[in-house]
Amino acid sequence: MTETTEAPVPVGASANTRKVFIKTYGCQMNVYDSQRMGDALAKDGYEPTETIEDADLVLLNTCHIRERAAEKVYSELGRIRLIKAERHSQGREFRVGVTGCVAQAEGREIIARAPVVDLVVGPQTYHRLPEALARVARGDKVVDTDYAVEDKFDHLPNTSDRQIRARGVTAFLTVQEGCDKFCTFCVVPYTRGSEVSRPFAGIVEEARRLADSGVREVTLLGQNVNAWAGEDAAGRPVGLAGLLRALAEIPGIARLRYTTSHPRDMDAELIRAHADLESLMPYLHLPVQSGSDRILKAMNRRHTADDYLRLVETIRAARPDIAMSGDFIVGFPGETEEDFDATMRLVVEIGYASAFSFKYSPRPGTPGADMDDHVDEAVKSERLQRLQALLRVQQDRFAASLVGQTIPVLVEKPGRYAHQLVGRSPFLQPVVLPAGAGAIGEIVDVTIESTLPNSLMATGAGIEAGRKVA
Ligand code: 5AD
Ligand code: SF4
To answer: Where is the TRAM domain (predicted)?
Structure first.
């Protein structure tokens, strides 16, 4: 999944005076989880705060996908240690928790390395946070990293009404968790466990409640979201395509997206849904990681570069305007200059609208970490630079191709200046549009006038405010 910035995630409020600060690292699933943790804690009397200095409880909802992500957590804990010492000198309570994937991967080790930490709770046990805190209050250090994903989907509160109101017009909805693919670079199968799908009825119910409170765009989340499987209301087996079709029927939901997908699980039915469903946005994040068959094999991706190229061809035949996005890793063990060239060639052939690229980072416990022929950091950096320069050109070219076109934009929030609003294009690009072009929550047709490095500027011309979509 795409990483987010590290903005604190506002959580639920209550009458009590205890305050929790949740800092979210990593992907959108962590953002969703932070919101659910906030809901679980609101029941326990915790109000949200956006500053650490205000908080009685600090939770770092962590990411373990690459080394830098995990190291950031430890440096933050160093800062928190000073705050805790100051609080204790004032005789005040201050609890510190580590949640998320670093918690799952390192467990008790975290407390050994950072004794400031009072509780370590893995992604499958957030619903037990209030119990864990009660034990901490009795003087225990708590480590709860059991796998109980079914429990999690059963027990976690649905998005609360308060959360929904706070959220605006777009929302994430976790439908699947875990991964059985075991790519040799990846910690996800170890931190999030094996694939579990949330039941159909619960998803539809939550989506309805989101729609009722004004959400217009829902992004279904899963580490391997195409592997979602369930039974529809009539008891028939359905996959992600069936789920999307059901969600598309919900009045008010105008836009659907899903992330992240594995190429092997892009089945014909899902591709057909891209052709049929107007509300399924023409944007697909389909990581390939490398363009070299040798490296793809070593990564255990279980497809070739050619399989991927043909798959994208099929998807584009179904939905010609689809914007492709991807993830790439450079410098996987054994990657030669030739292998890297194959990645560059694949990028040229596909033409990405956006992409994320990373230097390979050995993760303890994954097969990749134990492979021979690790690539020099300097070589990784140099390859990453070349790849990112090419991806930048492609992203700019895609954005420029929209100049002069009229496209539907979902208006999300006020812009930086009073005369502006900000929305999203169907292709997930932020669009700055003139205030008065439409209201928040509406989908309006705007004409793209120019591009900025990561957004589009629209004029008032061509606007049909309030175009009805659902
Ligand atoms: N090193 C570098 N990048 C990684 N990713 C996952 N594991 C690693 C790793 N060990 C990248 C992949 C994945 C994205 C979420 O993060 O590209 O698709
Ligand atoms: Fe990691 Fe591969 Fe699973 Fe994606 S498909 S979460 S990269 S193991």
So the answer is: 400-462
Q: Annotation-wise, does 27 bind a ligand? A: yes
Nearest to 67 by CA among 40, 101, 18: 101
**For ligand 1, atom 2, which residue shows the shortest CA distance?**
360
CA of 324 to the centre of ligand 1 (A): 18
Q: Please determine, for residue 43, whether its predicted confidence score (pLDDT) is greater than 90.
A: no
CATH of domain 152-401: 3.80.30.20
Q: Where are the domains of the chain?
A: 18-144, 152-401, 403-458
Residue with the nearest Cα to atom 5 of ligand 2?
181
Q: Calculate how far, in angstroms, residue 24's C-alpha sits from the geometric centre of ligand 2.
A: 21
* Token reading at 356: 């994320």
Backbone angles phi, psi at 125, to 5 degrees: -130, 25
Residue identified by tokens 């040798």 is: 294
Task: Find the mean pLDDT for residues 258-281.
Answer: 97
Determine whether the annotation assigns residue 179 to a binding site: yes
Q: Does residue 302 line the site of ligand 2, with CB under 6 A?
A: no
> pTM of the full predicted structure?
0.88
Find, among 357, 344, 290, 353, the residue nearest to 324 by Cα: 353
Q: Of all atoms in ligand 2, which is nearest to the CA of residue 300?
A: 2
Distance CA 338, CA 341 (A): 5
For 103-127, write each residue's pLDDT tens digit. Answer: 999 999 999 999 999 999 999 888 8
Residue 54: what residue type? Answer: D
- Give yes or no for a contact between 356 and 2, defined as CB atoms under 8 angstroms apart: yes
Structure confidence at residue 466 (pLDDT): 41
Q: Which of 3-7, 90-94, 236-240 has the highest mean pLDDT?
A: 236-240
In the chain, the amino acid numbered 47 is: E
Task: Report the pLDDT averaged over residues 266-292.
Answer: 97
Q: Which residues line ligand 1 (CB under 6 A)?
A: 1, 65-66, 185-186, 287, 289, 327, 329, 358, 360-361, 363
Specify the CATH number of the domain 18-144: 3.40.50.12160
Provide the pLDDT confidence category of residue 418 given band limits of 50, 70 and 90: confident
Ligand 1 site-directed mutation target among 328, 358, 391, most atoms within 8 Å of CB: 358
CATH classification code of 403-458: 2.40.50.140
Distances in whole angstroms, Cα of residue 437 to Cα of each of 451, 460, 461: 18, 6, 9
Q: Is the CB of 262 under 6 A from ligand 2?
A: yes
The pLDDT assigned to 107 comes to 92
The tens digit of pLDDT for each residue in 308-350 reads: 999 999 999 999 999 999 999 999 999 999 999 999 999 999 9
* CA quadruple 428, 416, 253, 196: dihedral, nearest 10: 60
